[in-house]
Amino acid sequence: MDFKAQILQGIPRALPKKKVYDTQVNHAPKKKAILTKEEKKLALRNALRYFPEGWHAELATEFLAELETYGRIYMYRFRPDYEMYARPVQEYPFQSLHAACIQLMIQNNLDPSIAQHPHELITYGGNGSVFQNWAQYLITMQYLAGMTDGQTLNIYSGHPQGLFPSSPAAPRVVVTNGMMIPNYSSADDLEKYNALGVTQYGQMTAGSYMYIGPQGIVHGTTITLMNAFRRKLGMSESPAGRVFLTAGLGGMSGAQPKAGNITGCITVCAEINPEAARKRHQQGWVDELIFNLDALLQRVKAAKEIKETVSLAYIGNVVDVWEGFDAAGVLVEIGSDQTSLHNPWSGGYYPAGLTYAEANQMMAEAPALFKEKVEASLIRHAAAVNRHVNKGTYFFDYGNAFLLECSRAGADVMADDGVDFKYTSYVEDILGPMCFDYGFGPFRWVCTSGDPEDLVTTDVIAMEVLQEIRTEAPVEIQQQLQDNITWIREAGANKLVVGSQARILYADAEGRAKIAAAFNTAVQEGRLKAPIVLGRDHHDVSGTDSPFRETSNIYDGSRFTADMAIQNVIGDSFRGATWVSVHNGGGVGWGEVINGGFGMVLDGTATAAEKLKSMLFFDVNNGIARRSWARNKEARFAIEREMGRTPDLNITLPNLVDDNLLDALV
Question: Which of 160, 195, 255, 157 is nearest to 28 (CA)?
Answer without folding.
Answer: 195
